[in-house]
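Hey,
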Amino acid sequence: MRRCRQAGRIIAAGPTPDHEIGIIVLGHLSEAELHEACGGDPFVAHGYRSYEAMPWEVHHVLGIGGFDQQAVTAMAAADKAG
């Protein structure tokens, strides 16, 4: 996991409000790289924690994607025109 952090591949990380699980969003990893990174985490490697990998198609992040300001403005104008 440290190598992923140093390489800038951890997009977001943190616990759920109840601290029952942690969520780490990783970017630009093959499935093999993902399992190597997560499986090599000391808590996972020693059996204290486990992980589940879920593919995710990102369609919108911080105004990048289908809902950027230009698209939102056009949708609002279309709604007003009715």
